[in-house]
Amino acid sequence: MQKIGNFSKGKTMLTMKELEWDKLTFSVIATDYMYVAQCMSGRQWEQGNLVPYGDIAISPASGVLNYGQGVFEGLKAYRSQDGDKVFLFRPQLNAERMSDGCRRLCMPPIPEDVFMEGVTEVVKANQPYIPPYRPGASSQAALYLRPLLWGTGSILGVAPAPSYTFLVFASPVGPYFKGGLTPIKLQVSEEYYRAMPGGSGCVKAIGNYAPGMLAAKSAKKIGFSEIIYLDVRENRYVEEVGAANFFCVKGNTLFTPELDGCILPGITRRSVIHLAREMKMQVKEERLAIDSAIDADEAFASGTAAVISPIGSISYKGKEYVFNGGKIGAKTQKFYNTMVGIQHGLIPDSYGWIYEVDL
Ligand SMILES: *Cc1c(COP(=O)(O)O)cnc(C)c1O
């Protein structure tokens, strides 16, 4: 692979691409560069390099292809209103979570400095693809960053691979759910489960996601946006909304399932909880029965991709339960505005959540 010198100051006179920014969806648009670092057998992680974005060659006997030894992350680069600054949102937490995933899947944890160099170099090198800030509720355009880490080396018996690769690529994206802030319709899955105690549900293991595709596909075919997973033990407690965390509001109380090992600890989730406490709401992180959730005043899903997605209704055992007349609730709107405002630098960040990329 051709190596490109890392981008430094003075090399940033890159002109914006002419993409139809308003029409972006959550899908891959190839950008110019990606970042690749290696951890060779028995060694430490080495610093990586930018390389042209493109296909990679991998051994047919690699750990990731045979046994699913891989984790991923997802974060966004947001442009400021005036366009000349670019922000990441709590990226160190993504680095930490990726390392947690590495430990769970017997892979060498990625050092925070390599992770941070990967994401910042990819942002800098792909600046022309960072969407401009557009005010308005449906604008969720950003440069999505996808760090990956997988077992590269050959292995035949079920065991950790001898070597590993860390790669970051980027794609400009729009809203995850069609319509942006339009409330979504969800169906409770009574057939499929996402995670189990002692499993890998609490890390972004690549193997966690394919098993949910069949469930989501059949729900989408009959008009739902996503499914809600319940716990596997009692088939009663809410876990997640596809690949986003679940919240509901009753009066001045915010409810979300506790991190019991089956829930992915979302960075958006953690931030919403913090904001709720600042807003003097009561926060209950505990087991959340579906019967109680469907009775809430408002509900929403949270995630980097989903941002704050209002839930219009939930179908459970063939009955539809509508929240707030199918419209976005006041508290949900407030969380959305605050999160998006901080992410784009419109609202002062008093929490130290924003990481400005040194372009
Ligand atoms: C990534 C992910 C989330 C959201 O996490 P954020 O850090 O907020 O983006 C929630 N649930 C699942 C299953 C996920 O994979």
Description:
By secondary structure, the protein is of the alpha+beta class. 20% of the residues lie in helices and 26% in strands. The protein has helices spanning 63-67, 91-104, 112-125, 213-221, 267-278, 290-293, 330-343; strands at residues 33-39, 49-52, 70-72, 75-79, 86-89, 142-151, 164-173, 184-188, 226-230, 238-241, 244-250, 253-256, 282-285, 298-303, 307-316, 319-322, 354-356. The strands form 2 sheets. Strands 1, 2, 3, 4, 5, 6, 7 and 17 form an 8-stranded antiparallel sheet that branches. Strands 8-9-10-11-14-15 form a 6-stranded mixed beta barrel. A hairpin with a 3-residue loop joins strand 14 (298-303) and strand 15 (307-316). Bound molecules: pyridoxal-5'-phosphate (PLP). Pyridoxal-5'-phosphate is lined by residues 74, 204, 240, 243-245, 264, 266-269, 302-304. Residues 74, 204, 240, 243-245, 264, 266-269, 302-304 line the site of pyridoxal-5'-phosphate (PLP).
Order of helices and strands: EEHEEEHHEEEHEEEEHEHEEEHE
Helix content: 10-25%
Q: What is the CA-CA span between the terminal residues?
A: 25 Å
Structural class by secondary-structure content: alpha+beta
Give the rounded overall mean pLDDT. Answer: 94
Radius of gyration: 20 Å
Oligomerization: single chain
Shape: globular
The unreliable regions are 8-13
The tally of strands reads 17
User: What count of helical segments does DSSP give?
Assistant: 7
Strand percentage lies at: 25-35%
Ligand species = pyridoxal-5'-phosphate
Q: Note the main sheet.
A: 8 strands, antiparallel
